Amino acid sequence: MNLPIETKNLYIPNLTEVAEVLNGGLKKNFENITVAVVDCPDLTQEPFTLACRGLGGKPALVEIGGPPYLLPLVQRSKLYNMQDIAKLINMDPAFIVGAGAGPFPFAGVNCEGILNLEIANGTVNQQTRISKVTGDGLAEQIKLPNSETRCALLANLLFSEGKTGKVIRVHAKKRIGNDDFIASIRKTLAEHYKDKIVGLGGTFLLKEGKAKQHVMPDFSVTPLNSDEDLNKWLHFYNMSAPLIAVGTLVTGEYVILTKFAYVIKKPALKYVL
Length: 273
What we know:
Elements: E1 5-9, H1 15-25, E2 30-39, E3 60-65, E4 79-81, H2 82-88, E5 94-101, H3 104-107, E6 112-120, E7 123-126, E8 129-133, E9 139-143, E10 150-160, E11 166-175, H4 181-193, E12 199-206, E13 210-215, H5 227-233, E14 235-240, E15 243-250, E16 268-272
Parallel strand pairs: 3-16
Antiparallel strand pairs: 1-16, 2-11, 3-10, 4-10, 5-6, 5-10, 6-7, 6-8, 8-9, 12-15, 13-14
Helix pairs in contact: 1-4
């Protein structure tokens, strides 16, 4: 697979320092906040049920494609195989989690990808789910088979070897500010580190309440030329807890989409265009 790759350096602060920064800054947005550096729990177990036990081992944030491939009209040729991407960035084993567009040729329609898979020595442990909008407007979720390792158009991913190790655990309860959980983490880090770009990737559990999430319907046959057009096209759902989220965030302008996370280590953000 011959794709251009661009690599950018990220700033890597000490995990304890990051925990202290978040513990102070997140209090502006949540009544109860506890942030600590801990041993990573076994993520293959409930409630997370991820493909690997941990998030460590050469972690890197990988950005694939981008919104220009969806707007104003979709470019259906933009399909990416995670096995090829892992080879491109020299990751074996590769534990991959994050958010993106799912493989529409498999689903039969455009879909969301909730990526969660391990590729080791050519063997795939596929735990990825895709969400698509059914004919009656409901959101349907399907688990991908081991034989399907593609995504389409765009993705924001954390690659690692899936090893156990230290992680940052954030426990937040009762929001008192305007920002959601991920936005408040990103804003706190951005305000503290300023022009030093920091990235996070991982998973979190929403224990109580609801989250407003979008699921992309099938590709629009009319051009989407504005944010208003995009929001009218998307389908939004209020999803009840418990919910597991996977994904990434970056504090600067490198990132395509800002979504989810916990762990920091790798000083590189990789783009596959």
